């Protein structure tokens, strides 16, 4: 199996060490070890035995993860090295060449690329409006049939922050049930809904052939721990994923699981702080885009730490972002690497230094050649 290039990650990798501010990361403000551990807990970490851990993952972590789901127990949760490992493992253990997969697009690259590399037949569920990334669930339902093996989606959506309603989620589940298809629901940004947005139930709570994937990277700002999880009531799916891993990482590293478990104790408090920051940054972005409406048009998000902005300069978004990086040392992701219109920019709303990045972007826009 040959994996294709990963344009989003390649973009980040090429910019590594070259930017001072990011206006595009999808995570919330990163926490440090001392934000998570008090003195006593730092001692516990210092004395933590570093022998092999358990195959299923740290019990305390799985318990606190399971509490996020209405119908799950700790044994319905498997801990992995980030949501990325969950995606790869799930696709490898459940899909075969020729399987029909209905998948939202644009979507975080590996969700589609892994299924494609396995040789699946990919049927894309595209937005009704490619610039705002609004999705119509009735078109997804029309794409499904008796051959559908798997339905894949991500809400709150990366990069647009668009959502669907709970009724729409239920109609996707009913369609999956009708065709006996699995659902893979990427819920990395769940719990970061804006105040007026609905919060969807996790797919694994409403369907027993659904997998929910989430983790601590985005919502808690702990991407460096590389902790994510697969949550499902389906024991066959869990068993396949667990046994595949005997050939890869075997289990997830113990110190990071311990740190994630400690952070989960302060879960509500961290999320409240992160939601507040997102709302604050979104207000700044709205004002900024109004001030620069000659060049920028914000398509407001409903949930999550990201939004898309349409830029109408004489540059493509790739050129725009490259110049911004070279001239102002600010990181922005162009639509092209997300598989959307290259007039769009992905804006990350989760970071503390957002206004500093905006100031640099302002300087950059002021240097634009005047429109004819
Ligand atoms: C929608 C989505 N799913 C999964 C991931 C992978 O997350 P992790 O860093 O936990 O592997 C990302 C990372 O950007 C993402 O945006």
TrEMBL record:
InterPro entries: Aminotransferase_I/II_large, NHTrfase_class1_PyrdxlP-BS, PyrdxlP-dep_Trfase, PyrdxlP-dep_Trfase_major, PyrdxlP-dep_Trfase_small. SUPFAM superfamilies: PLP-dependent transferases. Keywords: Aminotransferase, Lyase, Transferase. Its EC number is 2.6.1.-. Residues 50-349 form the Aminotransferase class I/classII large domain. Its cofactor is pyridoxal 5'-phosphate. GO terms for molecular function: lyase activity; pyridoxal phosphate binding; transaminase activity. The keyword Lyase applies. PROSITE patterns: AA_TRANSFER_CLASS_1. Gene3D superfamilies: Aspartate Aminotransferase, domain 1, Type I PLP-dependent aspartate aminotransferase-like (Major domain). Belongs to the class-I pyridoxal-phosphate-dependent aminotransferase family. This is Aminotransferase.
